[in-house]
Amino acid sequence: MARLAPVIIITGTPGTGKSTHAQMLVDESPIPLKHINVGEWVKEKELYEEFDREWQSYTVDEDKLLDELEPLVSDGGIILDWHTCEVFPERWADLVIVLRCDHSKVWERLEKRGYPLKKIQENNEAEIMQVVLDEARASYPAEIIVELGSETTEDLEANVARMVEWIVSWKRNHETVV
Ligand SMILES: Nc1ncnc2c1ncn2[C@@H]1O[C@H](COP(=O)(O)OP(=O)(O)O)[C@@H](O)[C@H]1O
């Protein structure tokens, strides 16, 4: 069945601005969108196998996560905000935004967040090596992936404006099809 609203994945290395973008998009979208911060969702709904003390992170139970998300995704009108995207089936995504940021800025943002040094280093290197972008490219068709810089407030505003335009266009195209 055709969705009445799109599913947008916002991905990127931690600290690139996924939640900030998602929240602003919820506020500015012409159609109602629900923001799912997948990391928080995993914790709240206990969709993990264990807590890894060394990396200070949860090992996600991917089957449970996908089962929880499936009904929400089939309704559409969802922003999935997570630092990885390859677990989501290709058919789920209408648009995949990959946020990018200078790695030294990512470092500062994660330091402010109080991340342990090891985790800051890991994410810093991941941003330099464009791990998330490569993962998105390996998981979704090129035409639905958009790479956006997220270093300044101007970037943030321009990115959200672009996503709003995309939603308007998506809606128009789907109304003509239905
Ligand atoms: N484009 C941007 N310009 C300025 N600050 C930003 C931008 N994007 C994110 N930030 C800031 O960086 C920090 C991390 O952003 P957040 O949205 O939590 O990242 P993520 O969800 O990717 O981990 C926050 O303090 C946020 O205000």
From TrEMBL:
GO terms for cellular component: cytoplasm; nucleus. Keywords: ATP-binding, Cytoplasm, Kinase, Nucleotide-binding, Nucleus, Ribosome biogenesis, rRNA processing, Transferase. Pfam families: AAA_18 (PF13238). Residues 112-122 are annotated as: LID. InterPro entries: Adenyl_kinase_AK6, P-loop_NTPase. GO terms for biological process: ribosomal small subunit biogenesis; rRNA processing. It catalyses: ATP + H2O = ADP + phosphate + H(+); AMP + ATP = 2 ADP. GO terms for molecular function: AMP kinase activity; ATP binding; ATP hydrolysis activity. Its EC number is 2.7.4.3. It is an enzyme of class 2 (transferase). It comes from the Eukaryota. ATP binds at residues 15, 17-20, 113. Residues 37-60 are annotated as: NMPbind. Gene3D superfamilies: P-loop containing nucleotide triphosphate hydrolases. It is found in: Cytoplasm; Nucleus. SUPFAM superfamilies: P-loop containing nucleoside triphosphate hydrolases. The keyword tRNA processing does not apply. Belongs to the adenylate kinase family. AK6 subfamily. Interacts with small ribosomal subunit protein uS11. Not a structural component of 43S pre-ribosomes, but transiently interacts with them by binding to uS11. HAMAP family: Adenylate_kinase_AK6. Broad-specificity nucleoside monophosphate (NMP) kinase that catalyzes the reversible transfer of the terminal phosphate group between nucleoside triphosphates and monophosphates. Has also ATPase activity. Involved in the late cytoplasmic maturation steps of the 40S ribosomal particles, specifically 18S rRNA maturation. While NMP activity is not required for ribosome maturation, ATPase activity is. Associates transiently with small ribosomal subunit protein uS11. ATP hydrolysis breaks the interaction with uS11. This is Adenylate kinase isoenzyme 6 homolog. It comes from Collybia nuda.
